[in-house]
Amino acid sequence: MKTGKEQLSKVSERILPHIHRTPVLTSSLINEVVGAEVFFKCENFQKMGAFKMRGATNAILNLSEEKQAKGVVTHSSGNFAQALSLAAKSLNVPAYIVMPDSAPEVKKAAVRTYGGQITECPSTLKDREEAANRIQKETGATFIHPSNDINVILGQGTAAMELLEDYPDLDHIFCPVGGGGLIAGTALAVKHFGKNCNCIGGEPLEADDAWRSLQSGRIETNKYANTVADGLKTQLGDQNFPIILENVEEIIRVAEDEIKSALRLIWERMKIIVEPSSAVALAAVIKEKERFKNKKIGIIISGGNVDLTNLPF
């Protein structure tokens, strides 16, 4: 599939009736801390609370009517489970969601609220994939991967595209790196809509598979991922990695205390609820702030789905 400027524009037009065009917020205090102008694209205000609504919607809209009628299936313990459920509900498409039995009840409840039909399984990737394959065979539903699907990637890229429409002269756009869908889409948007702009990722030191993948030129994995940024524990895929390898300037790794400090800064100074994964991008800017002094920086705030009973402060 083409991943050019025209393609991204069409995706943006296609999904616009089904998503929110989220606001861009600034904080003079954070600008002082960083020594640069920072513009936050607030996907925590997106439908279901995260950028993943964009990719899920685009992926479903790309299916034929016949395929839509049979439904969609994914395996996810978090935001994509909710995103695909809500996107499917708004388009009258059945959604089958495979979730690990260890997933928090609050996330399962959200998926059910959005109309997703949950199948629980043990938490290994093998068990998740087997359950999703079984549902595919039984229902004829189309499998949609949370991050390693070109239609999902293009959908996620529309957040940065909107940010660049509002602020065309950004020098850098930062976003967190987990499964790779957001940063691949963001990098494509920067490539086609930015002017002398580049895309930089932020990643937890405790789950730095994407950083290592850029060094080695092949997809690396994490044996352990003991990070507060629970949305970033997944790994890159064969669809998004080539895009990242070609179009992402660099990935900056941040420690757990740096993530928590950036998270607190956003909560206290901007008065918005964001999840720890979202703070990783700001933490990366702050860590290397001498390099980015006096620059114009965009940050994708990826989501705001927080377990309020388990805050990291």
From TrEMBL:
The lineage of its organism: Bacteria, Pseudomonadati, Bacteroidota, Flavobacteriia, Flavobacteriales. Its cofactor is pyridoxal 5'-phosphate. SUPFAM superfamilies: Tryptophan synthase beta subunit-like PLP-dependent enzymes. It comes from the Bacteria. This is Pyridoxal-phosphate dependent enzyme. The keyword Lyase applies. Keywords: Lyase, Pyridoxal phosphate. InterPro entries: TrpB-like_PALP, TrpB-like_PALP_sf. Residues 15-303 form the Tryptophan synthase beta chain-like PALP domain. Belongs to the serine/threonine dehydratase family. One of its GO terms (biological process) is D-serine biosynthetic process.
